[in-house]
Amino acid sequence: MSFPGMPGTGGAPAGGVGAAPGGFDPNDPNIKWMQKAMESCFAKTVMSGGAGFALGGVFGMFMASMAYDTPYHSPTTPGTGPGANPAAAGIPGYKPVDLSSMPLKEQLKHGFKDMGQRSYSTAKNFAKVGALFSGIECGIEGLRAKNDLGNGVAAGCLTGAILAKNGGPQAAAVGCAGFAAFSAAIDAWMRMPSEEE
């Protein structure tokens, strides 16, 4: 199957005049529009949020699957933790049911429900962090008209402060410092020259 612009078809010849290494003409208005759209802050923010949601979902599912090595009770267990019913605490003669004593079908039902809830919660958090950091970094890069380590550090600081704002000024300062340091370390590692060069 061939499409216009592919090498060896009726489109632009491979390596011909005006053809990019992939066989696409960089002056094609559709290619320019796609490049401009992909480089916009909105697209970067949406893509980072989507990637964060996917990664967070997988990470949350993995972490939830590891949580079953500790004792876990059915949803009628008194208390306030996940899978607990605070109203059951006031029932006279109430005895919690161990999840391991329940039938396999019930165990799986409760396990998958809890795994889904934890996975979704982690996915939302990762999406929020990814979109926030990417959007702020893109905005700073546009304002400074530079692509250097400072953009990531400033974006990390702002992201950490925004995420920790409900904890007060001290928590915001710690969040700022922590995210800035992490961002600087990752950015410095990503900008290191590869061994092949």
Automatic annotation (TrEMBL):
Major localisation: mitochondrion
Cellular component terms per the entry's GO annotation: TIM22 mitochondrial import inner membrane insertion complex
Residue ranges that the Swiss-Prot or TrEMBL entry lists as coiled coil: none
InterPro entries: TIM22
Quaternary structure, from the entry: Component of the TIM22 complex.
Family the UniProt entry places it in: Belongs to the Tim17/Tim22/Tim23 family.
PANTHER family linked: MITOCHONDRIAL IMPORT INNER MEMBRANE TRANSLOCASE SUBUNIT TIM22
Protein name (record): Mitochondrial import inner membrane translocase subunit TIM22
